[in-house]
Every structure is written in C-alpha cells, then in structure tokens.
Amino acid sequence: MDTFSTVLTIFLAFWAIVFFIDQRFGLSKYNIEVSLFQIIARTERLTNFIESIAKAFRPAWIAYSIVGVALGVLAMALTTSNFLFIGKMLFDEPSSATGVQIVIPGVTLPLTYSLIALTTVILVHEFSHGIIARLNDIKIKSVGAGVLAILPFAFVEPDEESLKQSSRMSRIKVLSAGSMANFTLAFVALIVLFGLVVPNLSGTGLSIGSAEDGQPGALAGLEKGMVINSIYYGEDKYTISNYDDFIALMDITMPGEEITINTNEGNFTFLLGQNPQRDVGYIGITTYDRSVLKSINPLVAYLYPPLVLGIDVAVFPDSFSSTVWFIIDCIKYIFFLNVGIGLFNMLPIGPLDGGKVFREFTDRMLNKRASAIVSNTVSLVIVALIVASLVVPSVF
User: Does 3 reside within a domain?
Assistant: First the structure.
C-alpha cells in the first residue's frame, strides 16, 4: 500500500470511529457536535479562565489592544497594497507574476510541522479575541475547539448582543486582537530562533546541506548537518576548508575510485559514482561553505537559505541533534505561519477580521448603504485578485 492509500485509510477509519462513538453514546449531551468530517467541542468553563487573565494584567492588555489596532491597520494596508501590486503584475506580465501559495498541511507544507504551527496560530488567535473582549466588558458565550477533516481549529464565541452594544473602538480592538497575538507569537519565535541558531555558529569546513537518496554519499552514511573536514584520496589527505577546496578535489576524481571523507561524526569510505553532468566522481550531496556565514546574518541564512546560497539548505551547527532540529524547524514554521496568517486575516474581505474592521471604519465615515457597497466592492476585488494570482501563473 502506498503512502497516499495508507493516509486515506487512516483518515477514513478515524472518522468512522468518531461517527460510531457519536451514534452509540450521543456526544451532543457532552457539548460535542459531530458532522461530516467535523467535530466541535464547546465549554463555558474556560470563560472564567479568560476573565482572570484579562483582569490580572489589565494595563498590559490595554496597551496590547491599542498596539493591535495600529498593527492591524498597517497589516491591512500592506496586504491590500501587495495584492494590488500582484494584480498589476498579472495584468502587465502574467507569465512572470508570482502566485499565492495555499497552506495545505501535507501538500504544500510538511504535515507535522504545519499542524503544530497551525495549532499555535489558532490557539493564541482565539484566546486573544476572548481576552480583549472581556477587557472591554463584552460577554463570552462559550469557548470551543475542533477538527475539520485534519485541520485543528478553535473559537471564542462572544455574546452577539453584548458585542453590538459595545463601542466601535472596542469592537475594532477585539477584531484586531487575533492577528496581534499571531504577530506577538511570531516575534517570540524569532527571538527563540536567534537564541538557538546564532550562538552555535562557529568553525570552518564544508557543511552538508542534503544527501541524495540512493547515491554513494547517502549509502555510506553521510547526512544533512555533517561537516566535512578533510578527504583521503589515493595516498594523500586533502584539507577541505571551503567549497573551492572540495570542487578542486572532485575535479580530479573518477567514477569508481575510493575516497574516505572525514567529518565531525567520523570517517566514511565508499566508491564514487558517476557525475550526471561530466566525467568525474560523484558523491550525491549538496554543500555550503560555512565561512560564507561569517559575512551574513546567520538567522537570515537559516530562514532564507535559497536567497543566500542558491540551494535549499540551512545553517547546521555541529552540536544540533535531530531532536533539536525538529524543535527548530517547528519554531520556524510557527514564525512563518503566524506572520502569514496574521497578515492574511487582516485583508479587507468580509468574513475575515480585517473585513469586519474595514466595515467598522466605513460605517463610521459613510451611511449604512454606502458603507455596505464600499466594503463589499473592496472585498470582491481582493478575492478576485487572490483567485487570479492562483490561476493566472499556472495558465501562462
């Protein structure tokens, strides 16, 4: 059974079990709702917890909510102008325009990392809504969480009547609080990445960015993150201080010859393969020169390695174990998804928080009918630009 079939079988089996349990025990009496590929659990118990947090740090939350409005408006302006720019590019040069990438765990993003990151996005987003709602004396009906297919979600459900009776600025603060939480968590993740990655950068040599499956290097045991210090070829030992040293040696090798690579994790001896591009030996690894990192921001090198080195590798400190790398990669996706979703959420599109904030502004400046026309028109234009950015690049 291939991977897709296995995943599909597990997915269907999980939901079949959920439906069976619901039919057998009636989960609705426990405030758990089950529908097609969706399960939602509601509770009123967490409302007191949210209330206590809002009261405990009231001055800080007031400042937080004010900054949230400012950042929310800025995010709305940036994302809207970005899509307008994309729209212009699509009109002027459709073949060279960059499309929007949809976040789909397991498809466009690694499944484990993206699910962990999305969970953090949702939790801080919704709890932030709830805390700022209580800060502004807006009642909360319930707090809940659930799963839609494989995607986790959460929500804080405010009392609609209480929300309507609150001031316009209070509503804007509540709506902006979700993205503010995402930006805050992204900032924390960035600080943690600085703490984990930057202090561990040192030394010289050639780091392995990846080892191609089935090729001599991978078969011999070479792995991502190892540092090549020297190579034994023939009767000689060649010190590898940088990428130029490595290429100079490989240029004099031939397929089938034996080499021994000395790394920070030991020696690896194997026969060279055939280089697919020219008649020299082949290991089957991508590498990067560690000395290059001395002249650039190392965190940028980790977050955006293709921009720095032209290959899809990252900064690999020698001391990092696979567990530490898993944590670092999780934090990286937490950073990216919180920034990305926080920004997208502030687009002036009807159902999104940004759309509701935009409607509050237009309601303040225009009569009800004109406000509806303006907000709906802007929303439709942005949606059209998003759809176009998904479709046009693939056509041209």
Answer: no
3-state secondary structure of 351: coil
Nearby residues of 137 by Cβ (< 8 Å), 6 or more positions away: 162, 166, 170
Tokens 């949210």 — which residue? 50
Range of the domain at 300: 203-316
Long-range pairs for 207-210: beta carbons < 8 A, 24 or more residues apart:
207/287, 207/288, 207/290, 207/313, 207/316, 208/263, 208/285, 208/286, 208/287, 208/316, 209/285, 209/286, 209/287, 209/288, 209/305, 209/311, 209/312, 209/313, 209/314, 209/316, 210/285, 210/286, 210/312, 210/313
pLDDT 10s digits, 222-260: 998 788 989 999 889 999 888 888 889 999 999 999 999
Cβ burial, residue 41 (10 Å; 0-12/13-18/19+): middle
Residues 352 and 302 in one domain: no
Model confidence pLDDT, tens digit, residues 322-347: 677 788 788 888 998 999 999 999 99
169 and 54 belong to one structural domain: yes
Closest Cα to residue 270, out of 226, 340, 312, 216? 216
Residue listed under structure tokens 């090198």: 301
- Sequence-ordered list of residues with C-beta below 8 angstroms from that of 65, at least 6 positions apart, any chain: 132, 135, 136, 173, 176, 177, 180
